[in-house]
Task: inverse folding
């Protein structure tokens, strides 16, 4: 782990390639020491900007202030459950749902199943490999894992599941994109623990991805009790 | 306005905040306060833009990066967490990431057209001191930079201002990969400690 730890400096100044960055961010989730170090190194790096200040043209200020007037600031990340507006609950609330997903799932590690459903490989691959791809990982108590990859440039997101429990008889995992609190259906997870699915819809404008358990065929509105949410970094 | 009247009224470039606290301005911006946001912009734009320009080089693209960055700052101001660092660091981290994304995607695009132009491209090692202005803060940073070894400084500058990955920095400086990332980290630790920030 020492090796991973040593990437903190390069991470703090965005000097990792996409794969290393994803790896290091996975490490950061578990390593409070590295999180603190990254924050402190960024504080130091920010000082470098003092060396070469350049006042931008006045017209830029006007453009920015004019544009800002038309944009609504996002709420803090303390999201509450507001079923009326179909807003997904916060990650904390989602932790309860993790249990739902995890019930009776002994499959912690499983080789990629041979019957992996057909996906649009090229579009999926493009998302996984795009220069700007962001990665969001959630691990569940039963050892299963879901990872969302999003490329803003491509406007697409992909979800990769490993060892996910069966949603239950007559149920399906439905995918959603969170557009300013509005949940827009974005497809389904095929049966099976390990899947890679390209979400339909505009992922660039979305603020997050949600997974819920719904009756087969899907629902008009997400079942918030079962929601697991991946909030995008803005 | 509690500022002494003798202060220059132009865009402040000094790091020492004179007017309202940046974190306060950020919090007010999160509530949709456009006046506070304008103040935040005036207090930080030269540093944000200067850094963007330094990384992307092209003035028009630097303006785009600065614009994107401020829009994101406005949109996501509520997500600033003061327990993790200063408002300025948050702003600059966000901007730096955008600037680096910009150069990397431009690079990826040009790599698709021209195959190996990169190999023989001369590296423009611009020296921090060249563009340094005379402000007190800049002098302090230059002092802190001077506490880095030459090789640490070079690695930090190529990573931060050059927007290169540590692997690229290693190649440029003809170092083993592990060495470049260590130099970047050691250099940043020294810089942080010399500036007395982030602890």
Result:
């Amino acid at each position: 782990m020492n090796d991973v730890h040593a990437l903190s400096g390069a991470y703090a100044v965005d000097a990792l390639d996409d794969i290393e960055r994803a790896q290091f961010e996975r490490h950061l989730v578990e390593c409070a020491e590295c999180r603190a170090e990254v924050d402190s190194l960024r504080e130091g790096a920010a000082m470098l900007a003092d060396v070469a200040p350049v006042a931008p043209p006045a017209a830029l200020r006007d453009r920015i202030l004019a544009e800002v007037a038309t944009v609504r600031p996002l709420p803090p990340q303390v999201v509450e459950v507001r079923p009326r507006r179909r807003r997904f609950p916060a990650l904390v609330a989602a932790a309860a749902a993790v249990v739902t997903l995890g019930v009776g799932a002994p499959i912690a590690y499983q080789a990629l199943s041979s019957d992996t459903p057909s996906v649009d490989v090229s579009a999926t691959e493009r998302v996984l490999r795009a220069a700007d791809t962001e990665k969001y990982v959630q691990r569940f108590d039963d050892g299963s894992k879901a990872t969302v990859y999003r490329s803003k440039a491509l406007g697409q997101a992909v979800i990769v599941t490993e060892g996910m429990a069966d949603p239950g008889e007559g149920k399906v995992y439905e995918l959603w994109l969170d557009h300013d609190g509005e949940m827009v259906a974005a497809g389904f997870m095929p049966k099976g623990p390990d899947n890679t699915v390209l979400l339909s819809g505009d992922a660039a404008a979305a603020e997050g991805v949600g997974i819920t358990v719904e009756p087969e065929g899907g629902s008009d509105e997400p079942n918030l009790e079962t929601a697991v949410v991946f909030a995008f970094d803005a | 306005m509690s500022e002494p009247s003798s202060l220059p009224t132009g865009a402040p470039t000094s790091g020492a905040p004179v007017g309202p606290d940046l974190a306060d301005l950020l919090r007010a911006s999160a509530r949709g306060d456009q006046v506070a946001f304008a103040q935040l912009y005036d207090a930080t734009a030269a540093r944000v833009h200067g850094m963007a320009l330094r990384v992307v080089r092209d003035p028009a693209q630097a303006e785009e990066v600065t614009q994107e960055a401020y829009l994101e700052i406005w949109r996501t101001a509520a997500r600033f967490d003061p327990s993790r660092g200063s408002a300025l660091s948050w702003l600059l981290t966000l901007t730096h990431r955008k600037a680096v994304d910009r150069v990397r995607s431009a690079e990826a695009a040009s790599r698709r057209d021209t195959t190996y132009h990169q190999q023989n491209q001369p590296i423009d090692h611009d020296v921090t001191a060249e563009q340094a202005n005379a402000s007190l803060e800049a002098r302090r940073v230059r002092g802190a930079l001077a506490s880095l070894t030459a090789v640490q400084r070079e690695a930090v500058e190529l990573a931060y201002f050059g927007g290169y990955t540590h692997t690229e920095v290693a190649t440029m400086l003809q170092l083993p990969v592990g060495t470049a990332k260590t130099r970047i980290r050691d250099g940043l630790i020294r810089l942080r400690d010399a500036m007395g920030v982030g602890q």
Observations:
- Residues 158 and 164 of chain B are 6 Å apart (CA to CA).
- Chain B touches chain A through 87 residues (CB under 8 Å).
- The radius of gyration of chain B is 18 Å.
- Residues 133-199 of chain B form a domain with the Arc Repressor Mutant, subunit A fold (CATH 1.10.10.10).
